[in-house]
Amino acid sequence: MSAEYDVSESTRRLLEEKAKRRLFLREQFLKLKSDPFRHASNEGGTVFDPALQRYQAMKINTFEFFRPTSKNALIALAFLVIPVSLSTYCMHTSRSNAEHKYRTGEVAYKDRRFKFI
Amino acid sequence: MNNLAKSANVSKSWLKTNPILFAAIRNHWNKDYKPAAYPRTENERIAAAEKYQLQPEEYQPYPDDGSGRGDYPNLPAISGDSKDPFYPWDHPELKRNFNEPMHADFGLIREDRYDVNAKLKRPLWFYWAQHLGTMIGLYCIYSLFENVKMFHALVPKQFPNQGKTHYTFERE
After folding, report:
1. Which chain A residue's Cα is nearest to B25?
2. Interface predicted TM-score of the whole assembly (ipTM), two decimals
3. Do B28 and A42 touch (CB under 8 A)?
4. pTM above the 0.80 mark?
5. N or C: which terminus of chain B carries fewer CB neighbours within 10 A?
6. How many CB atoms lie within 10 A of CB B61?
7. For residues A49 and A108, what is the distance between their CA atoms, to the nearest angstrom?
8. pLDDT digit string (tens) for chain B, length 172 residues
9. Considering the domain boundaries, does residue A52 fall inside one?
């Protein structure tokens, strides 16, 4: 049977099931989209897409199943804590050193940087 | 009291006739669509696959490592750029079909963002080398010639009657 196709029997069945589901959803979509009584349902003209809502709900509900693990801690350190603290430290030291030089008169007023902010 | 009941009725009917508020307040709450906990049993897996419009064979949740995605499916990442532009999509602007599960990183692999399936003409390291070579090379040239300034050779300016005072600013 599967000799007629270039995919295995199980893959073929999976693809057929997917095509069947796609056809069903396409028909459902066309039915909802062309429903003349849609505006009377008071939900607006667009067809509500549950998958889109599931995606948005997943994005804002990740805290519910969040567990502190070493991997999560590493990600937070690498992308939040270390960059923020490093840039804060660099900026603070450079600006403090410059301010010290200005106040002790090592730099002429005309050579100051960031004079107007 | 009667008045109060009447005004409550008015606000209810106003809500009923306002589609945006009706859809946002009365329907489609995130709590009804948020992912469930990571599926442990076979039945939970099948139920989750059905919920996300997938076949049980292709349903694969994200590993339960505390990243908080629950039973959301780990779908193959296909960027919008790599999807067929000639397929009759239900939502052509997103190259998406109705009720098709969305990738968890959809915000990254949209058509106007990053293409994870890009077929590059050359390997990625080549482009990195090209970019970094240009930037570092330009910086090296700049920093070298910022320290080693070069000028055309000049002689002192020559004027007629040099050394003669034509005019002074002193008071006589």
Report:
1. A43
2. 0.76
3. no
4. no
5. C
6. 20
7. 65
8. 566 555 556 566 666 677 667 766 777 888 999 999 999 999 999 999 999 999 999 999 999 988 889 999 999 999 999 999 999 999 999 999 999 999 999 999 999 999 999 999 999 999 999 999 999 999 999 999 998 888 899 999 888 888 888 888 888 7
9. yes
